Amino acid sequence: MRITAVYSIAPEGHSDKMSAPIDADHSLAGSVALVTGSTQGIGAGIARKFAEHKARVVIHGLEVEAGKKTAACIQSAGGEAYLVIADLRNESECRSLVQQTIEHWGRLDVLVNNAAVYPRGDIENTSVSLWDEIFSVDLRAPFILCQEAVKHMKASGGSILNIGSVNAHFGKRNLLAYSAAKGGLTIFTRNLANDLVRYQIRVNQINPGWVLTEGENRIQSAVERRGAKWLDEAVKTRPFGRLLTPDDIARMALLFVSDGMITGAIVDYEQVPVGAPPEF
Asked: Which of 1, 34, 212, 237 has its CA 20 to 30 Å from the CA of residue 271?
């Protein structure tokens, strides 16, 4: 198997096989969490939040410097992080990512499938290769990662959290493939939850709405060509006067992975009910 690169940010030697109970204060002490797409944005927010609550986290992504920065931030706050650079378009790297987690920490308790790509394209200008690339990262990779993770979780239980999107219900015309992939992820989550309850592995999903991240800033200012002041106009459309933040999503993620009874839940995290008619 080929892994692009591996960077050790925290001390080795954590290979205990004890169970990792989660208490009412959302402590993740003793647990190991793999968060894909966590070098920045929502994933980084989730990884930081889990580390704050004593989880040992695996940071994953393609951006080496951003990943080092996120891992160092966690470490400087007293947490433990391990950075793995891997391309989720490659099946062997997906499986190796889980294996690297097990080899480094000795266990895997939480898998967060957050990594996604979202190039723009409607029915007329989305190529088959672009469609395949989006599905390979946004839907195929979560399937492979879950398949690999279950091998290790089935003996002692665990938690899988998929990060979807409100676009799964009805996306913009230039998010056709992305919306379709996230719709597929929703169906996958429900069916997987039903399957894995026999192993006490819980599977849930958060569908974030409009979240302010580094990537969103780039997309809105450059790709959507709304310019540097796009955010000033965007917040005027939000009922609570701001966009969601990675920390908002991270707090919901913490609730899902630290509650031992919730499974098969799909939560739309947005400031307005999804599908509500616009006001006149």
From this structure: 34
178 is catalytic: yes
Residue of 82, 118, 178, 269 marked active site:
178
Note down pLDDT in tens along the chain; length 280 residues: 333 344 444 434 333 333 344 444 678 999 999 999 999 999 999 999 999 999 999 999 999 999 999 999 999 999 999 999 999 999 999 999 999 999 999 999 999 999 999 999 999 999 999 999 999 999 999 999 999 999 999 999 999 999 999 999 988 899 999 999 999 999 999 999 999 999 999 999 999 998 988 878 777 876 676 777 888 888 888 889 999 999 999 999 999 999 788 999 999 999 988 877 665 4
Closest to 8 in 3D by CA, of 68, 62, 49, 53: 68
Distance CA 120, CA 117 (A): 10
As a three-state string, the secondary structure of 39-81 is CCHHHHHHHHHHHHCCCEEEEEECCHHHHHHHHHHHHHCCCEE
| Domains of the chain and CATH, by start | 5-13+27-209+244-269 (3.40.50.720)
